[in-house]
Amino acid sequence: MLRLRSYLEGTWSEGEGVPATLHDPSTEEPLAEIRAAASLAGAVAYARERGGPALRSLSFAERGQLLLGLSKLLHESRDELIELALRNGGNTRQDAKFDIDGAIGALVHYAELGTKLGASRVLLDGEPDAIGRSPRLVGRHVLVPRSGVAVFVNAFNFPAWGFAEKAACALLAGMPVLTKPATATALVAHRIFERMAERRALPEGTFQLLLGPVGDLFDHLDGQDVLAFTGSSGTGARLKGDPRLVGRSVRVNLEADSLNAAVLGPDAGPASATFKMMATDVVRDMTQKTGQKCTAIRRVLVPADRLDDLRAALCERLETVATGHPAAAGVTMGPLATRDQLADVRAGLARLRAEAKSVFGGDGSIEPVGVPAGTGFFFGPVLLECDRSSEPTVVHQLEVFGPVATLLPYDGTTAAAAASVRRGGGGLVASVYSDDRDVVAEVIAGIAPYHGRIFVGSEKIADKSAGPGTVPPALVHGGPGRAGAGEELGGVRGLALYQQRVALQGDRAILEAVAARL
Ligand code: NAP
């Protein structure tokens, strides 16, 4: 069987101990093995001593060129990466493209940003401020790259984008990266690193791949390092509280779960483009990547008098979903990624069904297309519905990471819709579908502090948008509360995680001369 290797300190190493096995989730066929790496002290030192200085000697424009080269490399490898995502992730071609093209798009965005930032190596943050009676006495803020390593611990669902969106920001900011993909779907990230190493796509020491568990990695991190985590809120909370990270003030960013809500405004009737847009977005989010998308709409808020219409529109679209082997003709939704995922989704659905009835898809049992019965981690789309008079709690608290969403009728007032959305405890993205500016403004005012991003669906953009589930690199990604309280991307804002903001204070003339030399 294929043995995947970590790429550490400029060489490939197989690791040691009992292997973890990666499977094809459609056929359950074992695909590859991963063994744990030995001590990671050397990898951390290698990044700090070799990678960091190499990157910090480059201007933003030069770092941008590296990202552009990386985007081209991914583009060249696109077909084989899609094939690997299909086998190891159960992705349909469309799902795989969403991940891989998303990775390429993020790299290109930050490459272009590097070109715009030009020949400097640090960012000036605002203008000088007078800080005393004399006009000579000023202060100004600059953002300099941290001198450690940017460690990424990523979730299973986006093996390409999850790496690229973080790496684009860290590398452009001037920090070397060490990335650990989720074990179950590591084939795609592993192949990306094979191509990067073959091509020497980045300077030595700036890119390392750790497969399997983190081992002793956290023992070696300190206050110049960054840990950027994406995954479940349970794992995130464990990492955030890890005494080794807390004790040495390692900067930690968490991207975690989210019970993303979508609100249909009372103005959007069933014949309107806005209503249809919402129905399409909900079903896309339920089924794209088999619902294993952190930004997917989970809670669907609908005015009670539109409930029948929206339910009918969603069910009509869900009828067209064909679940099965992603390579089989006509299949539009693949399996869940792992056996554990399947067990978690089944258990989660059972909990949701204690307070919501299933109006499409029953308990998710399905006869998949293109595989023998009983094989693979398949689960069909399930639409649930809460009673108007009920007071659900689990629906607002439990993220079922699969093709499941719940209809929640509300009384048609923006106050009630906003209150219901807020019960999610903080999210990555919420959406409101309405052409009534008062409705949109009131809902946004009621939910903005609880979200990292708010998507407004409306008639004029109904056929022009990829929906709330797509994360544009120009906009911030992350959210408060349950979503982990982190922030990534957002154009130049995404660099801040990997930089130290420092206030320089002194004689204006000296500081101006110094700023030009940094
Ligand atoms: P997970 O089980 O929390 O794992 C995430 C990562 O953490 C994996 O690389 C995993 O490694 C690693 N990990 C697990 N335990 C660890 C520990 N004790 N110490 C260090 N690392 C550890 O999450 P998942 O099942 O992969 O992903 C699904 C979740 O991610 C969902 O809840 C989803 O909402 C969330 N997600 C959030 C975003 C976002 O941007 N906010 C994006 C995607 C997914 P192994 O695989 O080796 O166990």
Short overview:
With 518 residues, this protein is α/β, with parallel strands linked by helices. Helices cover 36% and strands 22% of the residues.
Describe the structure.
The structure is a single chain. The chain has about 525 residues and is α/β, with parallel strands linked by helices. It folds into two domains: about 1-5 and about 55-255 and about 485-515, Aldehyde Dehydrogenase, Chain A, domain 1; about 260-475, Aldehyde Dehydrogenase, Chain A, domain 2 (3-Layer(aba) Sandwich), CATH 3.40.309. It is built from 15 helices and 22 strands. Helix 2 (about 60-75) packs antiparallel against helix 4, helix 3 (about 80-90) runs antiparallel to helix 6 and helix 13 (about 415-420) runs parallel beside helix 14 (about 435-445). The longest helix is centred in the first third of the chain and has 25 residues, at about 95-115. About 50% of the residues are buried. The mean pLDDT is about 95. The structure holds NADP nicotinamide-adenine-dinucleotide phosphate. NADP nicotinamide-adenine-dinucleotide phosphate binds near residues 155, 156, 182, 239 and 257.
Which features does this protein show?
518 residues; alpha/beta; Aldehyde Dehydrogenase, Chain A, domain 1; Aldehyde Dehydrogenase, Chain A, domain 2; 2 domains; seven-stranded mixed β-sheet; five-stranded parallel β-sheet; 15 helices; 22 strands; 36% helix; binds NADP nicotinamide-adenine-dinucleotide phosphate
